[in-house]
Design a protein that fits this description.
Rossmann fold; two-stranded parallel sheet; 11 helices; 17% strand; globular; UDP_G4E
Length: 346
């Protein structure tokens, strides 16, 4: 896929990461020219090799820290960006509890630097990677964008809520920025080529990589944290979305911002499937789709886990003209295919 001279350039911070790399594929397929900035603190350079195979060419990538003002200014000066998708952030909940200042400094300073550079270099559009963590344990389900945000359960979650406020206040100050904050639910799966996918460092914190690593024999067993919740089978409920559906939502968000004639604009949109799935149903579906029996056990509840949360995606459907296209089974098959390519080494 060869870029054309007039393809709009999009800065993708954290573009070598799980969601970022898949979004790079969707951007190219939609006629955009992504430019990655990543310091590879939570990603691997092998993602660039995978992108090369999928796209048939290299994607421009700067190895830089998004908090490095000199490096970022040089990149903005060199590249004429039409928009920014900001993924780059520390994201480990447990680590954020242990090192809150590191999380606040990294996640907030990088965003504020972008919000300073964008008007300076006449870059109008920002899509921000937010999270359903801002809802906490909601009183009513499914959650809409009007559902009250609750106090975050971790400094990581709090950085997402504060970042949304920083963007909102910057737009309200009449800064010439059009922004959408996408509140993700639970991205899973991998590109169907198995060339890129989720690469957790160390023991996975998310359910599906733990499932695939258990199936591959890397982990001896999977622990289901609690089966006495007020849910259909007693296990926690989440909204699991295929990462390629999520990637395509970013493309639609950019298009929406490009259509908006206002100099300043800000809104938030849920990005999920609109369906809640229990942990046990994820395990059962994985076994059905792959034919692999999982070794799992029921453990005690894990402190801080939300009982259930899933999205109302009406706004995404109508405002972005976007909906999910991939099934849960497809997501789990793609995740397993990616794990099989990685092999059984940790």
């Amino acid at each position: 896929m060869t870029p054309t001279g007039n393809s709009p350039k999009i800065l993708v911070t954290g573009g070598a990461g799980f969601i970022g790399s898949h979004t790079v594929v969707s951007l190219v397929e939609a006629g955009f020219e992504p430019v990655i900035v990543d310091n590879f603190s939570n990603s691997e350079r092998s993602a660039l090799d995978g992108l090369r195979v999928i796209l048939g060419r290299d994607v421009t990538c700067y190895a830089a820290n998004c908090n490095d003002e000199t490096a970022m200014e040089n990149i903005f000066r060199k590249e004429a960006f039409s928009g920014v998708i900001h993924f780059a952030a520390y994201k480990a909940v447990g680590e954020s509890v242990q090192k809150p200042l590191m999380y606040y400094r990294n996640n907030l300073d990088s965003l504020m630097l972008l919000l300073e550079l964008m008007p300076k270099y006449k870059v109008p559009s920002l899509v921000f990677s937010s999270s359903c963590t801002v809802y906490g344990q909601p009183e009513q389900l499914p959650v809409t964008e009007e559902t009250p945000r609750l106090p975050a359960q971790s400094p990581y979650g709090n950085t997402k809520a504060i970042s949304e406020d920083i963007i909102r206040d910057t737009v309200l100050s009449k800064s010439p920025i059009r922004a959408l904050a996408l509140r993700y639910f639970n991205p899973i799966g991998a590109h169907p080529s198995a060339e890129i996918g989720e690469l957790p460092l160390g023991v996975p914190a998310n359910l599906v990589p733990f499932i695939t690593q258990t199936a591959a024999g890397i982990r001896h067993s999977l622990t289901v944290y609690g089966n006495d919740y007020n849910t259909p089978d007693g296990t926690c409920v989440r909204d699991y979305i295929h990462v390629m559906d999520l990637a395509e939502a970013h493309v639609q968000a950019l298009r929406k911002l490009g259509e908006n004639p206002a100099d300043s604009f800000y809104d938030v949109i849920n990005i999920g499937t609109g369906r809640g799935e229990t942990v046990l149903n994820i395990i059962k579906t994985f076994e059905q789709e792959t034919g692999v029996k999982l070794n799992y056990q029921i453990g005690a509840r894990r402190p801080g886990d939300v009982e259930q949360v899933y999205a109302d995606v009406t706004k995404a459907n109508h405002v972005l003209d976007w909906t999910t296209r991939r099934t849960l089974g497809e997501s789990l098959r793609d995740a397993w295919r990616w794990q099989q390519k990685l092999g059984s080494a940790v």
